[in-house]
Amino acid sequence: MAVKDDVLNAMKRGGKPMSAGEIEKAIGADRKEIDKAFKELKAEGAIVSPIRCKWEPAKK
């Protein structure tokens, strides 16, 4: 759960759509953990992709 929260927080701090590589640099987590977090966040509708291969928090 912590990586998921870290990913979402990094996106909010970034203020722009971010790729998995950018998230990896921002939080220092393993890429596989980031990909898993992306998958879970997408399923929950917590993130959206406005640009191919880049993600940002969904506006609620």
Question: Care to describe what's here?
Answer:
This protein is α+β, with helices and mostly antiparallel strands and 60 residues long. It has one domain. It is 58% helix and 15% strand. The chain has 3 helices and 2 strands; from the N terminus they run H-H-H-E-E. It is globular and about 25 Å long.
Structure characteristics:
alpha+beta, 60 residues, two-stranded antiparallel ribbon
Task: List the topology elements.
Elements: H1 2-14, H2 20-27, H3 31-44, E1 47-51, E2 54-57
Antiparallel strand pairs: 1-2
Helix pairs in contact: 1-3, 2-3
Put the structure in a nutshell.
The protein is α+β, with helices and mostly antiparallel strands and 60 residues long. It is 58% helix and 15% strand.
User: Which class best fits the helix and strand makeup?
Assistant: alpha+beta
Radius of gyration: 10 Å
The outline comes out as globular
Strand order of the largest sheet: 1-2
Distance from first to last alpha carbon: 21 Å
Helix content: 55-70%
Q: In terms of quaternary structure, what is this?
A: single chain
Helix count from the secondary structure assignment = 3
Number of domains: 1
Beta strand %: 15-25%
| Poorly predicted runs of 5 or more residues | none
N-to-C order of helices and strands? HHHEE
Mean pLDDT reading? 94
Give a short account of the largest sheet: 2 strands, antiparallel
Tell me the total number of β-strands: 2
